[in-house]
């Protein structure tokens, strides 16, 4: 997908860019797969803020994806490549011979008219978009929309341009190199989609102005050292002073910036062969 730059008619437009989505085929949202969305703005059921820096965003409709319950054993034809405001990747609209429709993540190289299939036990043709167990995928292939536990549905490697590399297959597990650089073992019965997630140039977009972040539902953030001592551990002092602490802290006094947050003694620790580097 090409990046587009406009003439610098305003100071913000001078530094901004947009991604031209390669829309093709059917562009109308499938009504049976559309759900309404309410903006929670980071608040819980009682109205208290539990996630900071979130606000209202542009009105969206959710597209129901086939992460958990894909239609198995029946070929589907790609009839549309659409933009999804709820995720960074594109989505593909599938049509089955029975008349059923489904949305799935579009992989790089997918075009209108491709025939895709999902299998839970047998091997399929090695081509972008087919979904099958990891035990049938050869080493060196890039996969996405990955299950971490059999039957849980696609949980990892779903953002734009991401992909996990299949390193080797052992008796009951497959070694994968995740997009973060982490090498971990996954069950051979876990499903994965062959290919790399579409919209590879998503990370190259420059928003250019604060308003585009507000449209996404992201509110401004204030530095801790700009606050008062009652509001943040970094607050207080006259003028432009350092934080005055040995290590940075969160607004609640916990260590921040570089501190490991993964809980110790998790059951999945034994599956991680090498941690991510950063």
> What is the quaternary state of this protein?
single chain
CATH class of the largest domain: Mainly Beta
Q: Which spans of ≥5 residues are poorly predicted at pLDDT below 50?
A: none
- Helix and strand composition category: mainly beta
Structure notes:
The protein has 278 residues and is mostly beta strands. The protein folds into two domains: 3-203, Nucleic acid-binding proteins (OB fold (Dihydrolipoamide Acetyltransferase, E2P)), CATH 2.40.50.140; 224-270, Ribosomal protein L2, domain 3 (Irregular), CATH 4.10.950. The protein contains two helices and 16 strands. It starts with a strand and ends with a strand. The model has no long low-confidence stretch (mean pLDDT 93).
List the helices and strands and how they pair.
Elements: E1 3-4, H1 11-14, E2 18-19, E3 24-25, E4 34-36, E5 61-63, E6 76-82, E7 91-96, E8 101-105, E9 115-116, E10 131-133, E11 142-144, E12 164-169, E13 173-177, E14 183-187, E15 191-194, H2 210-215, E16 272-274
Antiparallel strand pairs: 1-2, 3-6, 4-5, 6-7, 6-9, 7-8, 10-15, 11-12, 11-15, 12-13, 13-14, 14-16
Concise overview:
With 278 residues, this protein is mainly β.
Features:
278 residues, mainly beta, OB fold (Dihydrolipoamide Acetyltransferase, E2P), Ribosomal protein L2, domain 3, 2 domains, seven-stranded antiparallel sheet, five-stranded antiparallel sheet, 2 helices
């Amino acid at each position: 997908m090409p990046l587009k730059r406009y003439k610098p008619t305003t100071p913000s437009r001078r530094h901004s860019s947009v991604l031209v989505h390669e829309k093709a085929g059917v562009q109308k949202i499938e009504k049976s797969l559309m759900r309404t969305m309410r903006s929670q703005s980071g608040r819980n059921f009682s109205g208290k803020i539990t996630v900071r820096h979130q606000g209202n965003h542009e009105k969206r409709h959710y597209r129901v994806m086939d992460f958990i319950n894909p239609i198995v054993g029946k070929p589907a034809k790609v009839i549309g490549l659409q933009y999804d405001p709820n995720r960074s990747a594109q989505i593909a609209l599938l049509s089955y011979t029975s008349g059923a429709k489904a949305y799935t993540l579009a992989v790089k190289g997918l075009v209108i008219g491709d025939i895709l299939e999902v299998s839970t036990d047998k091997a399929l043709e090695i081509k972008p978009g087919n979904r099958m167990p990891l035990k049938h995928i050869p080493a060196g292939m890039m996969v996405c929309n990955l299950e971490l536990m059999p039957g849980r549905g696609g949980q990892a490697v779903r953002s734009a341009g991401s992909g996990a590399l299949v390193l080797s297959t052992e008796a009951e597990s497959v070694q994968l190199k995740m997009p973060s650089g982490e090498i971990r073992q996954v069950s051979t019965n876990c499903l994965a989609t062959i290919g790399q997630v579409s919209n590879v140039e998503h990370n190259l977009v420059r928003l250019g102005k604060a308003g585009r972040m507000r449209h996404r539902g992201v509110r401004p953030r204030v530095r801790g050292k700009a606050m008062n001592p009652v509001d943040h551990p970094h607050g207080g002092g006259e003028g432009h002073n350092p934080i005055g602490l040995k290590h940075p802290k969160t607004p609640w006094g916990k260590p921040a910036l570089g501190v490991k947050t993964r809980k110790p003694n998790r059951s999945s620790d034994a599956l991680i062969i090498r941690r991510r580097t950063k």
